[in-house]
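thought: fold this chain, then report.
action: predict
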Amino acid sequence: MSRVALITGGTDGIGKATAKHLVAAGWEVVITARNATRAEEAARAISGGSGPGRVSVIEADLADMTAVREAAATFRGRHARLDVLLLNANAITQRRVLTRDGFEANLAVGYLGRVLLLRELEDVLAATPEAQVLTVVGLDHERLDLDDPQLERRFTARSALMRWQWAMQLYVREHTRRGGVPMNVYMPGLVRTKILANEPQPMRLAVQIMNFVIGIPVEQAAAELAGAIEDARGHGRRDTYYWRTKPKPPRALGERPDDAAQLWALTDRLLAPHTSTRG
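observation:
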């Protein structure tokens, strides 16, 4: 039986390259995509290489919690197992924009959408031997103001990015403490993708220079990420922080003693209207 991976943000960058790598290794890969045309193009590119694996697409805007829940239901209708859930989708919104659910857009895509998808598929993961969840984050983080998670005060795109990345990593830690399915954090380093292409100047120029000097191709990042997936599955890793190919202890996040419990409660409250009621 083929191993099954679900990769969010699989139409470009690391997600697409990792999907192609896994398909070539014989996996059955499902990618999420917001746009049907791009999804079809990505699926053709992913399946165009050699290898016995297969690729399929679930169309979903992961900033929309209803779409996240429907994507999970679609996956459940097609698959009885999930060996790897790769939470990779990200989109940096430079202005403070609220989604139709009333969530700040960066928080919605980077954190809330990921957590909801995990929760909706956790029983499928739990029923799959050696299943793993990896969530992809960048290097920088900043404590989320738990009294102002929507950044109503002093919004900047950089703070929004760093804050959801802090929240995601702290969630992994608390999820592990509560005995959830194995979940780890993956930091790919500086990869030559388009994710920071819309940064304002001079940040955009600085990123372009760093990408040229020390950035790695997406194909290399995908190979390294696939290696981390195999390491996590083979060793049953939990709350491990992968820096490219190397598993490391969890990062120092500078959280306060009650931050993890408060973040969990906040997440429960924000996602409660969007969580399915399966028995």
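thought: worth noting. The first helix runs from residue 13 to 24.
final: tokens above.
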